[in-house]
Amino acid sequence: MEHVEIDGLRVAFRRRGQGPPLLLLHGGVTDGRTWRIQLDDLSDDFTVVAWDAPGCGGSSDPPETFRLPDYADCLARFVDALGMGRPHVLGHSWGSGLALELFRRHATVPSTLLLAGAYAGWAGSLPAEEVEARLGLTLQVADRLPDGFDPGSVPGLFSAALPEERAAEMAAVMAEIRPTGTRVMAHSFAEADLRDVLGRIDVPTLLLYGDADERSPLDVARALHDAIPTSSLVVLPGLGHMAHLEAPEAFDAEVRRFLAGLPS
Fold first, then answer.
1. pTM of the prediction?
2. Fewer Cβ close by (within 10 Å): the C or N end of the chain?
């Protein structure tokens, strides 16, 4: 683990490899350890950096008022502090919304966007009653901490495609989530409606979804694909919301294929 100080916050990260920079943004109720396989697998061709968002893992807690624009500003300063230039930005779930907010506020930072199990924020992709239900459940989880978090309490988070040993590994990581980070990330995504930025995206964009994803289903995928003019959509058969852990070889192959196909 390494760390940098960004506006008074300690931001922890893991870094592997040499080559063009590839920045990995994790989802909610987890941290950069969710990218363990990608850190190893993709570091032969890329400098892979997986951060712990403020409030997660080895990073310090943000103020309770932190919202997605604050995370995006912190991320832009993080990229600058590490001298990453214009990285490829790969975000999963909550991290996909952060990637979109990063483009909204700092459009010159990402050279490409790779969005897995993505949303245009919960408010931008889900019915209001579903947003309210997800926010309520996550705040209940935060109220019960630090007694741990059971991923089975979130419908569709772990699918049948997730190998048992990786499910146990991620459950151990998720058991370490903290109340402040959990609350702030939930509020930030429940309030986020990123639909207005989608049509302005002018960098190559890959959308990666499992066709069995119950958290971010294919109607969400198609809506993003229709709205982002530079996007291509890849659907991975039989996979759910954690495709990067359920079938990392297939997931990483699509990432490599997309990045290798970019204009030099």
1. 0.97
2. C
